[in-house]
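Q: What residues go here?
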């Protein structure tokens, strides 16, 4: 795919996200429950660091980690199955078709620390970034330039209605 031109003829770079490790080829085994649980534990630690921090932008480190994990799953076309497994491993009842971003957030955060509205807002903001093909390293800048988490979530909600 060649460069896409918009506006005054400036090229916009397209990218294809590739995970650093492809578990299937790296060790000859699929993404085992131990690896999945380890990823969720890493996210849980990040969430605790966000809660302990008083920094305004601390949440973006956690959201970037969630975004990277789900994008890796999406590259391997396993996001729904792994989201369901993540919920099961952490003792949550998975729906038939779990939304991957919401499932990973729910699995890595204790229920008394995050309510449904926040979960939905974070999930919609990440889905909006994914539909716009935002690179994980540029997630914070992408969200901030589009008005923050609330505006990105609202834009995704409007996009769903159309």
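A:
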């Amino acid at each position: 795919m060649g460069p896409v031109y918009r506006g005054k003829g400036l090229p916009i770079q397209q990218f294809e996200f590739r995970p650093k490790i492809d578990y299937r080829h790296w060790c000859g085994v699929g993404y085992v429950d131990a690896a999945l649980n380890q990823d969720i534990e890493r996210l849980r630690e990040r969430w605790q660091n966000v809660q302990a921090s008083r920094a305004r932008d601390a949440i973006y480190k956690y959201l970037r980690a969630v975004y990277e994990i789900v994008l890796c799953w999406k590259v391997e076309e396993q996001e729904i199955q792994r989201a369901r497994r993540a919920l099961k491993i952490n003792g949550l009842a998975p729906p038939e078709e779990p939304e991957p971003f919401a499932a990973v957030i729910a699995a890595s955060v204790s229920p008394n620390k995050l309510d449904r509205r926040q979960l939905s807002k974070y999930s919609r903001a990440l889905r909006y970034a994914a539909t716009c093909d935002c690179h994980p390293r540029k997630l914070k800048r992408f969200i901030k330039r589009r008005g923050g988490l609330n505006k990105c979530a609202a834009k995704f909600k409007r996009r769903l209605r159309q």
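A: Context that may help when evaluating the design: The longest strand covers residues 4-6. Residues 34 and 136 are 24 Å apart (CA to CA).
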